Amino acid sequence: MMRTNRKMAAVLAAALLAGTASAGVAQAVPAAGGSAAPSACRPANHTAKISAADNTAGHRHYRVTLTAPRGYEPCRLAGSPTGVRFSEHGTDSGITAGSYGDQDTAVTFGPGRPVHFDIQVPNNGGGVPADEASFTLRAPDGENPGTSSAEGGLAVTAGTLIGPVQRGA
């Protein structure tokens, strides 16, 4: 009995240490705990596509839509993705993006619950072509681990901004 207690204590201590090693990074926790299914927020568990959206005065807009297939657990996202990079045929554009809008509102993402965010580009007559955007999704309590990517044609310039994740496709 004493040996079993020592083993359990060692397992619990290891679990606690592993949990503190990732401080500051969200763990893509399911929206409604209790499921053993992998989180839809992990990059390998969702797809993302870039498409042109309606332009506004002085800006071009592109919509990045994320979808998750069946078999993945819904999760919570909030704010604008971070670390956004744009590339064309694998070559980085050198354009970095800021963010705009409400960074605190959380949305649920998962199978049957697509989400999207806006890429707002100043319409200054030019632009660097890109066919991919890579980004890190944010959870209400930090960043989700890993880098997601979306494919689709767009042109970006200095001053490009990324809007917060919102419900719907």
Describe the structure.
The N and C termini lie far apart (56 Å). Mean pLDDT is 84; it is low at 1-31. The longest helix is centred in the N-terminal third of the chain and has 19 residues, at 2-20. Helix content is 11%, strand content 45%. It is globular. With 169 residues, the chain is mainly β. The strands form four sheets. Strands 1, 2, 6, 8, 13 and 14 form a six-stranded mixed β-sheet that branches. A four-stranded antiparallel β-sheet has the order 5-4-9-12, with no helix packed on it.
Summarize the structure.
The protein is built from 1 helix and 14 strands, in the order αββββββββββββββ. With 169 residues, it is mainly β. Strands 1, 2, 6, 8, 13 and 14 form a 6-stranded mixed β-sheet that branches. A 4-stranded antiparallel β-sheet has the order 5-4-9-12, with no helix packed on it. The protein has a two-stranded antiparallel sheet with strand order 3-7.
